[in-house]
């Protein structure tokens, strides 16, 4: 079990997609394996992420704008940022995944 938490963010544009990320920088193969385990725990899906693109970048947590708060997305959002005070590194899958796995699909392989 990895010593980090893989988070799932929901797209705020009603596209029914999710994105997996973890605070910190991790080797791509370790991160992909942790994402596969997180998805199995999330909704039972089996996903082969062996070739999924992984990126590292810096984010900041900032107050959400009034519309985002009013729509119930949250009071804060994470945004890409230059490294520096208040920024933190994240490792993430570059691909957004479907929120709902079609019932006819028990496994998926990403290019």
A few lines on this structure:
This protein has 111 residues and is an alpha+beta fold. 19% of the residues lie in helices and 37% in strands.
Rg of Cα set: 15 Å
Pairing-aware structural class of the strands and helices? alpha+beta
* Total tally of structural domains: 1
Number of helices: 2
Question: Total strand count, please?
Answer: 8
Q: Could you explain the architecture of this structure?
A:
The protein contains two helices and eight strands. The strands form two sheets. Strands 1, 2, 4, 5, 6 and 7 form a six-stranded antiparallel sheet that branches. Strands 3-8 form a two-stranded parallel ribbon. The model has no long low-confidence stretch (mean pLDDT 87). β1 and β2 form a beta hairpin. The protein has 111 residues and is α+β, with helices and mostly antiparallel strands. The chain has one domain. The two termini are 25 Å apart. The chain is globular.
